[in-house]
């Protein structure tokens, strides 16, 4: 099997695409629930409904966008042009989502649903092509892990920027008006994200094309994608893998504020420390998979995470130094599987082409992105429902012991159970190192045979025209 070594510039450029996305999406995972309850003024249970309901639309929009991307033909490729076309709209709708109008409660509820829906729609339109791009940069599984490692390192940089600057910018721009502060802080971060998207567009190239091109209708593609049994399993992994981390991340502001009794300045430092840990975890993914099969690394990391996260429950939140150290270590472990997860998506796409003869990259990744968003929505809704069930009040200066108990569970035990379920789902996958070597060799032979057949047909036509 021929390897395709990618330049450092291209790997960093690929990572910049997700860093640009994360300038907004990272704020959603860390601060949106807090923004909606404590700044915008929505009830926690309603926030849960909001985060979950928009995902129903994604069941339609995600596969349609995947099919559109698969059928796109441009001088820049199938997936790259969307980074150019949609980077500015993504920034605009992100700013609108963090804008708090001075309206009645009912009108604000409608505004929150509308802006979150529109931002999610643009996110679908730009992120599905971006995620698909990761499957066509290189056919080498190890290069894919390397690209995904760089991707999550730079996502860590973007998240670090958010965690260090968002709340200080809110205070600086708002001058006591946190609604105004969030709007202007997200304006700055959205512009930075837009520039990151454009850098990704300028530096990344598409290389992997289907061994045998197809021109089937969308209905046929949707039917054929289900023949890939590993695709169905990677969808389950995508859903369960995202839930524990997002639940804990969404609960972090609440945990720091009400369980640890710390200020927003400490919260920025706390979250930033976790981000540094995640960057280290992203870097560790490559050397670990150079030595061990990525499926084994994925499985055992989640087993350790389940034990580690549940053990966190028994720590006194007021032992600040101990909490900081353990949170840092927890985030290192948490991030190791992330590059492996996205690399496995590309491997499963190869498996599907090997098994069915069709490469349906856009629809394949759109399914994963849909399940990722469903996982985020379910996790976000779960956080809202648990907070409501335990008596959390967004307008209260202090919370009841019951509410604090709910926050601690969201930060520790509940994610721990999620990690254990994720480990079980990993065991369903069979695209291990040995099988992927066979798949890559077989696909390379198919491409060579197809090109040779095409060349033979062209020669035959020329001989027929000019005997």
Description:
- With 467 residues, this protein is mainly alpha-helical.
- It has 2 domains: 12-205 and 229-431, Growth Hormone, Chain: A (Up-down Bundle), CATH 1.20.1250.20; 432-467.
- 81% of the residues lie in helices and 0% in strands.
- It contains 16 helices and no strands.
- The chain has helices at 8-40, 44-71, 81-97, 105-133, 141-174, 178-203, 218-225, 229-259, 264-291, 294-312, 320-335, 337-356, 361-389, 401-411, 413-426, 433-465.
- The radius of gyration is 23 Å and the shape is globular.
Number of domains: 2
Low-confidence stretches: 455-459
Tell me which CATH architecture of the largest domain applies here.
Up-down Bundle
Order of helices and strands: HHHHHHHHHHHHHHHH
The coarse overall form would be globular
Instruction: Assign the CATH topology of the largest domain.
Output: Growth Hormone, Chain: A
Helical region count?
A: 16
Question: Assembly type of the shown chains?
Answer: single chain
Number of DSSP E strands:
0
- CATH C-level class of the largest domain is Mainly Alpha
Class from helix and strand fractions: mainly alpha
Major sheet characteristics: none
CATH superfamily of the largest domain: MFS general substrate transporter like domains
Residues in β-strands, percent: under 5%
Taking the alpha carbons of the first and last residues, their distance comes to 39 Å
Summed over residues and divided by their number, the pLDDT gives a mean of 87
Based on CA atoms alone, the radius of gyration comes out at 23 Å
Tell me the helix content: over 70%
């Amino acid at each position: 099997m021929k390897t395709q070594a990618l330049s450092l510039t291209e790997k960093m450029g690929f990572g910049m695409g997700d860093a640009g996305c994360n300038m907004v999406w990272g704020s959603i995972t860390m601060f949106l629930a807090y923004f909606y309850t404590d700044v915008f003024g929505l009830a926690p249970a309603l926030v849960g409904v909001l985060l979950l309901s928009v995902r129903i639309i994604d069941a339609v929009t995600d596969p349609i966008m995947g099919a559109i991307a698969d059928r796109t033909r441009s001088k820049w490729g199938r997936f790259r042009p969307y980074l150019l076309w949609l980077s500015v709209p993504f920034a605009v709708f992100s700013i609108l989502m963090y804008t708090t109008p001075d309206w009645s409660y009912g009108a604000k509820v409608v505004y929150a649903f509308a802006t979150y829906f529109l931002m999610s729609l643009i996110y679908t339109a730009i992120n599905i092509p971006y995620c698909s791009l990761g499957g066509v940069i290189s056919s080498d599984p190890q290069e894919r892990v390397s690209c995904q490692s760089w991707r999550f390192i730079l996502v860590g940089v973007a998240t670090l920027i958010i965690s260090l600057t968002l709340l200080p910018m809110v205070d600086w721009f708002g001058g006591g008006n946190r609604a105004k502060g969030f709007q202007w802080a997200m304006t700055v971060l959205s512009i930075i994200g837009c520039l990151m998207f454009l850098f990704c567009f300028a530096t990344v190239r598409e290389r992997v094309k289907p061994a045998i091109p197809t021109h089937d209708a969308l209905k046929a593609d949707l039917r054929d994608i289900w023949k890939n049994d590993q695709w169905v399993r990677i969808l389950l992994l995508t859903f369960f893998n995202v839930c524990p981390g997002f639940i804990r991340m969404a609960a972090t502001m609440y945990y720091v504020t009400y369980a640890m009794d710390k200020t927003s300045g400490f919260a920025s430092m706390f979250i930033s420390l976790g981000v540094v840990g995640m960057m280290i975890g992203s870097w560790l993914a490559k050397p670990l998979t150079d030595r061990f099969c990525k499926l084994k690394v994925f499985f055992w990391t989640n087993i350790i995470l389940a034990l580690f996260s549940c053990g966190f429950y028994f720590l006194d939140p007021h032992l600040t130094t101990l909490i900081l150290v353990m949170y840092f270590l927890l985030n290192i472990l948490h991030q190791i599987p992330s590059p492996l997860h996205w690399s496995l998506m590309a491997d499963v796409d190869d498996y599907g082409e090997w098994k069915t003869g069709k490469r349906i990259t856009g629809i394949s990744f759109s399914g994963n992105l849909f399940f990722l968003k469903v996982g985020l929505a379910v996790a976000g809704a779960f956080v809202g429902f648990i907070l409501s069930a335990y008596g959390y009040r967004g307008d209260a200066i202090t919370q009841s012991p019951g509410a604090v108990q709910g926050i601690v569970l969201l930060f520790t035990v509940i994610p721990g159970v999620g990690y254990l379920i994720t480990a079980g789902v990993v065991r369903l996958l069979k695209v291990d190192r040995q099988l992927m070597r066979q798949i890559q060799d077989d696909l390379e032979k198919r491409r060579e045979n197809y090109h040779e057949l095409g060349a033979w047909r062209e020669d035959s036509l020329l001989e027929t025209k000019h005997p």
